[in-house]
Each structure stands twice: as structure tokens, then as C-alpha cells.
Amino acid sequence: MSGAWIIRGARPMGGNPTDLYVDNGEIVDSAPNGAEVVDAAGLIALPGLVDLHTHLREPGREDAETVETGTLAAALGGFTAVHAMANTEPVADVAGVVEQVWRLGVEAGHCDVRPVGAVTVGLAGEQLAELGAMADSAARVRVFSDDGKCVHDPLLMRRALEYVKAFDGVVAQHAQDPRLTESAQMNEGVNSGRLGLAGWPAVAEEAIIARDCLLAAHVGSRVHFCHVSTAGSVEIVRWAKRKGWNVTAEVTPHHLLLTDDLVASYDPVFKVNPPLRTTEDVEALREALADGTIDAVATDHAPHALEDKETEWSAAAFGMTGLETALSVVAAAMVDTGLLDWAGVADRMSVRPARIGRVSTHGQPLLPGAPANIVLVDPAARWTVDPAQTASRSRNTPYAGRELPARVVATFLRGTPTVLDGKAT
Amino acid sequence: MTTLPRHLLSAADLGRDEALLVLDTAEELARLADRPIKKLPTLRGRTVVNLFFEDSTRTRTSFEVAAKRLSADVINFSAKGSSVSKGESLKDTALTLEAMGADAVVCRHGASGAPHRLANWIRGSVVNAGDGTHEHPTQALLDAFTMRNRLGRIDELRVVIVGDVLHSRVARSNVLLLSTLGAEVTLVAPPTLLPVGVDTWPCAVSYELDEVLPKSDVVMMLRVQRERMYGGFFPTTREYSRRYGLDARRMASLPDDAIVMHPGPMNRGVEIAAEVADSVRSTIVEQVANGVSVRMAVLYLLLGGAFIESVEAAA
């Protein structure tokens, strides 16, 4: 592939059609010599998407996903940077592991991999991991999370929030009170009572979010909340932001579209942490994403091997894949409903997540001088999700057979296409 | 003509007509028990698998006797332990049974919804014989059968179900079935043992057993599981027993013809006093006998077909 491109007739952020010029990995202001032309008539150009929350499973569960397959799925989904969560085997709690993951990302070349470092050793919630060493490593870690587990000890959380200030890091909290969710299987409500599955109360998430907002304010740190899933969490984050506190939050695509009514099938493809909630929660999350209370959409892409999902509900693993469907689900939940325009989608899926993760080369405006991280989207396309057709090594998508709007046509990473005509290059 | 759906996974799978068909068929089949030869040739050549992931000698035996009285071949497949931690997965077990040509699989499993999953993987009928804390539809059918036998009707019967509703598959199935059949169900439990959302169930809820008993035709006592006793759901077993146990004094406040039921196994002295369990109001032994008739009816209707006009004709 040459490094020079003319993207003809694209609509940046959904605005008026124009030509974008790419040369040497950057957006430039005039057509470069010898450029290849991409006909982008009718397509929307957005800055490459940035995912704050991806499980790439390597090292440890390469049967479910690898950095190679996961980042390929990411590119096909329009992402140019993903944050790889720390709950691998071994856990990404030392510089060696985060550097390994980062290097695998560079070698794969499908999108930038920003490793997330564990907050505590082994995700055990007892002792701070060497956060500084991970920050100083080649991986330049800025986001720290015990995702999958909550940093539930309030004193340890306070220390983590304080400590990462030294290198402008952020703690991304998986808000789940462990005692209130012992053996919990699904959202606690009418459906859990009827289905006889142990309930996962909203308060288990909200109590931790409230506590950590107060802690972050007290020590003057920033805090980020992973996958907020309840109307109550939205209210607390809104309140904390109104106070001027440095609080950010993400929501997953599936929490914007799916509800716990789906659990009635007992099909574990709908089993996820935090659990699918109610229609009222979905509406509150959409509204909060629209008004900016929730800063970002993050996939929580959680691939699992078939045998970990083809079981009875309670034995199944938590999690859903999401990289390849995220933009379409957001289009269905937010754009088709008139809650967000495409500029809003760019803000919530690229600009703000890049800012939260301190990924300076992503989430930039599509203007000359910016790195050419670009995704082209066909807003008129509709497609049906087929788990067998995904680039992810795992098949646990909750959207199988569902028709979704909008399709990623091309993705450029620093001027090099990773996806063209909807296919990996 | 009324027929049953392919599987019996939930009491909600049965409408009023289907539920009455099971009860009427069971009534006809119960007459077999009085004959010297208790066997019908109806399911000869059909295979019924008892797939029990949890120990339950009484339920398994009940299904086994029911299937054998209908001349079915019975395979007992005991598969204790969770699928992922050790041994074969539920799916592989299902495929194995499928290969053996099971016409019906009677499934008891510790995980709610396991029979629903099983139904996706096999062609035969699946009967839920108790799944986790979800449902136990044949227990509800035998309970309804017992009520109708003793009291002559189910419509407008006032039924109170007492105890650990939160974890009870018996309570869930009974609420669904009895409301379908027109009974007025009241659940009585400490608030810690009632599920969130119980206010949306087709029943009333109370915390006060003494208020409810004088207005009850049927009292169904639920077993208090040992792990609840130490799970912080109530302070002590003694306090539970005092507030929610059925003793002779409380039994005396019942209307004269009211009956006392228990799905078993009982904790005598905890949820039910020995003199209550052994009283003339108690239907506990009848429930066991009725369990066989009802399970025969379920297997017969799922595998055999239409209503039996009479046992003599079927034989």
C-alpha cells in the first residue's frame, strides 16, 4: 500500500462532502502525488475509534482471542486504538507483561494496543502493583484497572487514586461490591425472581461509584468508571460532574441496546458483567451518553471459548464480543433514535476515550497535520450479524441474526489502510 | 383436542386445559395402583432417561416407578458435579443421551434453566424435575392433584405457601400452576426470603402467618435448607420456627377441613412440628403416592398422546 491517499467525497463527522488527503501517515491539505483514490461518496469519515475496554485474552487464553485476532476484529470495527485489559494469565501487573502485549500489538499492526495495567498484584485487591514501572515501560501505561474485579478496599482505592497522579494515570474502576453480588447471575429484578437466578442489585454498582466519586474528590484525582449499567449510576456520575469533580464514565454498546428480558432463554450468550439491566436503565444510559454525562462508549469486548458458553447459565463465563458490532449498535441506539449525530459519535467513541486514556495521537480532528487515523462508515448500509463471519476468534456475540445499521467500509491507521471495502487488508 | 407442548420446563407451559388434562389423566392412571398388576403397555419400546445432576432419591424413584408402570425402558443417568469444573459438559451428556435414543429426558439440575438448555440439544421431550432455584413443575402438578383429591376443587381455594420462597422451585411452580387453575395463593415468608419482584407474581404476599392461617384451605410448608440457616437470612433457626413454623397451636387456627402439605423432605421441629406432620390434616404421604400418578400422566401425554378414557381400555 502506498502512503498517499485521496478519500474522495467523504462527509467528515457527517458534514458536507469533501476530499481528505493523506500522505506519510498524516492528513495533508492538498492532493499528494501518486495517491490512490478511495471513492467515499455517501460515506461518513470519523477519527479512528478508540476503545477504552477490550479483552484481548493474550497471554493465557489464546484459544479465545489473541492480540492478532482481537486487533483485526477491532480494525474491522473501525478502531485504531484499543486498551487491552489486564486480566490475562499471567495478569498484566508488571512491566514485562504490559510490554509483551504492547509489542504483540505493534507486530500485528492492525491497530494501536494500549495495555491497561492491573491496580493490584494479581487482581487480588490486596497490594498495589508496580504502577510506576508500568507507566515508565515501553507500553507507557496510563489506564489502570482490576477490571473483572472491583478494587473494593476503600483505603487501597484511595491510595491507587492518589498514586497515579504522579504520572497522570487514571484508575478505571469495575464497580461491583463483592458481598452484594456473591454468586450473582443476572440483574436483580422481576426477571431474576421469576427465573430463579441469583440477583445482581443495581446498588452493588452504585454504592461503589458513589464512594469512589467521593474518594476522587477528596484526594483530587481523576477516576473513570467502566461499563456503568444503571440509571442510578448515571445520576451519581451526573451529580459528581456537576460538583466539578474529575469523573468520567463509559457505557458498553450492549447496555445501550439489550435488556435482561433476554435472559429468559437461559442462553449464556446474554450473560455479562455487569448484567443486562432493564428498559428504564437502557433509556437512562442513552440519555446520559447523549448529554455527555457518560463520556465514552467502550466495548468490553470479552471473547470466550465455545465450551465456556455452551453450558447451563450459572456455569458459563461472563462476557460478550463487541468490537465488530460496536459502531453499528451505537448507530442503532443513538443515531437512528436521533440522540446523537455523527459528530457526537466521534466524540464519544474517539475523542473523549482518547483523552481519558491519554492517547495523544488518536481522537484528533480530521484536519491537516493530524495523524491519519480515519474510519469510513456507510450510514445507509444494513447487515445481519453472523457469528461465523467474525474476525474475533470467539463467537459469543449477543447479536447473532440481528440486523444492524451502518457498516465500517475502511479504516486507516496512520495513513495505512487496515480495512478497505469492508475487508481486512 | 388438548395436547401438551413438547417439553415440560415450567408450570407456565401449561394453560388451564393442559393442566386439567394432566390431572384428569393422573386420576385415571391412579386407579392402576389399586390393581394387582400395576402396569400398562402404553410406552413399551420407549426410553425414558432419568438425568439427575443432584441427589434426589424420592423424585428420581417417583419418575422411575411412573415410567416403569407405563412399560417404558428406564435409564438412570446420575451425573453429579458441575459440568465445567469436572467431567462431561451438559451438552456432551445431552448428545450422549440423544445417541442412545432417549424419547424423554427427566432432568434434575442444580442450575436454574439447565433443562431449557438441554431442550436445545436433544430431539426428545425434556421434563424439568427441578432446576436450581427456578421450577419443579411436576411437584406443582402433584400438589394440585392432591388438593383436588382432598378438597374436591382448586378453583378459589385459598392456598398459603410458607417459607423460603426466594430459593424454592416448588413455590415458583405452584404459584404459576395454582393461579392458572384459579386458586388464590398467598406467600408467607420473612422479607429476606422473598425475591425482588414478587409483587408482580400472580399471588398475595404476607409476613404474618398467624393472620393468614384462619383464611386458608391449604397450607404448604417449604423446607428450610441447611445453608439458609447459616446464610444470614434469619437470625436463628429457633426464631424462624417461632415466626414461620407450623405447630399444633397454629394448626388449630385453620378452618376445619384445611389440609397441610409439604414437598419433603421435612425438617421436623423447624418448619413443621412432628404432631402436625403426622396429623390427619397432613397429606404428605399422599403427595408421594400422587407423585407417581401425575408423573405417569406427564410421561404418557408427552410420549403417548391423548387422554385415556379408562385404564381398562388402555390395558
Topology:
The complex is a heterodimer of chains A (425) and B (315).
Chain A: E1 5-12, E2 18-23, E3 26-28, E4 36-39, E5 44-47, E6 49-54, H1 67-76, E7 79-84, H2 95-108, E8 112-115, H3 131-136, E9 143-144, H4 154-163, E10 170-173, E11 186-187, H5 190-195, E12 199-200, H6 202-219, E13 223-225, H7 231-242, E14 247-251, H8 253-257, H9 279-291, E15 296-297, H10 326-335, H11 342-357, E16 374-384, E17 403-413, E18 416-420, E19 423-424
Parallel strand pairs in A: 1-4, 1-5, 6-7, 7-8, 9-10, 10-13, 11-12, 13-14, 14-15
Antiparallel strand pairs in A: 1-2, 2-3, 5-16, 16-17, 17-18, 18-19
Helix pairs in contact in A: 1-2, 4-6, 6-7, 7-9
Chain B: H1 16-30, E1 47-52, H2 57-69, E2 73-78, H3 90-100, E3 104-109, H4 114-121, E4 125-131, H5 137-151, E5 158-162, H6 169-180, E6 184-188, E7 204-206, H7 209-212, E8 218-221, H8 226-229, H9 237-244, H10 248-252, E9 259-261, H11 274-277, H12 284-304, H13 311-314
Parallel strand pairs in B: 1-2, 1-3, 3-4, 5-6, 5-8, 6-7, 8-9
Low-confidence segments of chain B, given as residue ranges, are none
**Given this structure, which CATH class of the largest domain in chain B is correct?**
Alpha Beta
Fraction of residues in helix of chain B: 25-40%
**Rg value of chain B:** 19 Å
Give the helix/strand class of chain B: alpha/beta
Stated plainly, the CATH topology of chain A is called TIM Barrel
- Using only C-alpha atoms, the radius of gyration of chain A works out to 20 Å
Overall geometry of chain B comes to globular
Largest sheet of chain B: 5 strands, parallel
Profile the largest sheet of chain A.
9 strands, mixed
Number of extended strands of chain B: 9
